[in-house]
Amino acid sequence: MSDANHSEHQSFIRTPKQLIAAVAGFFLVIVIGIILLVVFATNHHLAGAGSDGQNAEATAARVRPVAEEGFVLKDMNAPKVLQNGQAVYTAVCAACHATGAAGAPKVGDNGAWSARIAQGYDTLLQHAVNGIRAMPAKGGNPDLDDIEVARAVVYMTNQSGAKFKEPEAPAQASAAPAVANAAPATGTPAPAAAAATAAPAAPAAATPNDGAAGKTLYSSACIACHGAGIAGAPKFGDKAAWAPRIAQGNNVLYEHAIKGFQGKAGVMPPKGGSSAPDADVKSAVDYMVAAVK
User: Fold this and answer.
1) Which of 12, 126, 226, 244 has a CA between 20 and 30 Å from the CA of residue 232?
2) Under 8 Å CB-to-CB from 238, ≥6 apart: which residues?
C-alpha cells in the first residue's frame, strides 16, 4: 500500500537523459521568447535617432499649431463653387430639419411635408429664401446663393415624398466687350472717365448707431424666435432666461449673435438670419439686454 502511494509522487524525470532534455527544453523556450520579443519590438516604426522622425518635415508637422489643421485659405477672387443640396442641408438646414426644432418638418417625415409640398416648389423656395415665421431667411446663412437654397429645398422635399427636379446653375453672363468700356480713339477721354479723374468720389456719410437700428432689427428678424421663445431663444423681457447669458459678458453675446451659436439649449442662426451689419446686430443685442435690466 505504501509502495503504491510512494510511486504516485515520484518525479517524471527518472534518468539523466530526461533531466538533460528538460533543461534543454526550458532554455529553448526562453530563447524563443526572447526572439519573439525582439521581432515584435523591431517591427514598429521608430521615431528616435536613426529614423525619419527627426527630419525637418516631421518636426514641422509635430510643432504645427492645432488651429491650422483643416484650415484652408480661400481665394476671394476665385469664382464661387455652388454646393449641392445635401451639402447645404448638412451644413445649415440639418440644425432644425434633422431634429424638428422650432416646428421644422423633419427630413423623411412625409406626413409633415405633404401639406408643404402641396403648396408647390415656387412657394417653398420663396419661404426658404426670404424666411417665414420661425424659419430665418436662407436658414440663417445669408452667404448662400439662391441656387444653393433651391438645391437644399429639392433635396429635403425629395427625401420626403416630392419629385422636384434639381435646379441647374444659371449660365454665366458673358463679359461685356472691351470696346464698350474703352475711350474713343480720338484721344479725348470719355466724359464720365474725365469727371472721375477730376474729382474723387466723396466718402459715404457714416450712419450713427443711436439704438433705433437695434429696435428695428429686433422687430424685423429677432422677434421671430425671441418674441415667442422658439428654438430655445430667451424671450424678450424674460429676466430669468437672460440672466445666465448676460453673465457671460457682452462680447460673448455679440459673437453668438453675429456668428451664430448651436448648443444644448437651442440654435441661434448667424445674425438671426438677416444680412444686417455687425453694428446693427450688436445694437439689437443691447436693445434686448436693456429690456431685462
Assistant:
1) 126
2) 229, 292
**58 and 102 assigned to the same domain:** no
The confidence band for 102, taking pLDDT boundaries of 50, 70 and 90, is: confident
In the chain, % helix, strand, coil (3-state, to 5) comes to: 55, 0, 40
Q: Domain for residue 33, yes or no?
A: yes
Residue 63 resides in a domain:
yes
Q: Is residue 169 part of a domain?
A: no
| Integer Rg of the chain from CA | 36
Can you tell me which residue has the cell 508637422? Answer: 61
Q: Which ranges of the chain does DSSP label H, i.e. alpha helix?
A: 2-8, 16-43, 56-63, 85-88, 94-97, 110-117, 121-130, 146-158, 178-181, 191-198, 212-217, 223-226, 239-246, 250-259, 278-290
Residue range(s) defining the domain that contains residue 273 = 212-290
State the Cα angle at 82 between 78 and 85, rounded to 5°: 160
Separation between Cα atoms, residue 257 and residue 31, nearest integer Å = 69
**Report field, pTM of the whole predicted structure over 0.70:** no
Q: What are phi and psi of 145, to 5 degrees?
A: -80, 150
Asked if 246 and 292 count as a contact pair (C-beta separation under 8 A), the reply is yes
Residues 283 and 210: beta-carbon distance below 8 Å: no
Amino acid identity of residue 248, one-letter, is Q
Hey, is 206 helix, strand or coil? coil
Write the pLDDT tens digit of every residue in 182-192: 444 444 444 44
